[in-house]
Amino acid sequence: MDAVLHEISAALAKGGVVPYLGPELLEQGGENPVPASFEALAARLSARVTVPFKIRTNMTAAAQYIENFKHRKTLVAVMREIFQPPVAPSALHRYFASLPNLPLLVDTWYDAAAQAALAGRPSWGQIQGVSRAEYRDQWVKYYRADGTETSEAQAAGWDTVLYKPFGSIAPAANFIVSDSDFVEVLTEIDIQTPIPPRVQALRSGRSFLFIGCHFRNQLERAYARQIMKRSCDGPHWAVLSGELTRNEIKFLEEQNIQRLDIRSAEFFAALCGLPVAA
Length: 278
What we know:
Elements: H1 2-13, E1 17-21, H2 38-48, H3 59-70, H4 72-83, H5 91-98, E2 104-107, H6 113-118, E3 124-129, E4 140-144, E5 149-150, H7 152-155, E6 160-164, E7 167-168, E8 174-175, H8 179-189, H9 197-203, E9 207-211, H10 218-227, E10 236-239, H11 246-254, E11 257-260, H12 264-272
Parallel strand pairs: 1-2, 1-9, 2-6, 3-6, 9-10, 10-11
Antiparallel strand pairs: 3-4, 4-5, 7-8
Helix pairs in contact: 2-3, 3-4
């Protein structure tokens, strides 16, 4: 384990690693006012709008029901309400944001903790996935650090890109969350169309470090597989404690992802205990 941690630390210092954050990382930030899993979000959606019992634990299906029977505007309003409370960045959010070399940070949840952690950096911006139901001819939108919308050309000059493939509450409440939202993306993602060129360029030759996420369902695996596509041959790493499903084990093997069977907090503590690489 020590050798792997040293390898990760050295690669992070050189900017050779793309941190890929999942919703469970929020559990490391103390008291958390927003849901930190697909299942928890499904429960919150179902608590605000009555949905059929059989889909109350299915995030994308519950969101689709609300969109179909209450309108897309209602779904966005509910998501905005759920994720409006400020979320404090976890220690790992702050750690990654403090790295001198951080070309690309991927965050696959709807909160704004990563944005808050990055606020002190001198040159950064974010690229967010957007729903085709709202923006028919767009896959993503670009935002400066101050939240104002900008262009793909301007994003080329940022030292750090925060990529939020599912969208985010901040700054404009963009959400890819319903079945139809994800169908639109997954139909094209194999040929990389929904993934912005800037992200494709920055991932090239780099390893990925997955933390705060699992690969239990096809949606999680598909996004991870396609976002890391054409990066490097590995190694990649995933901080995953506890028992894994057969599909998760198979996915890790296929993608040359080395598992670190420790909790996120333990990983952070171990990483901080290493000397800072030059």
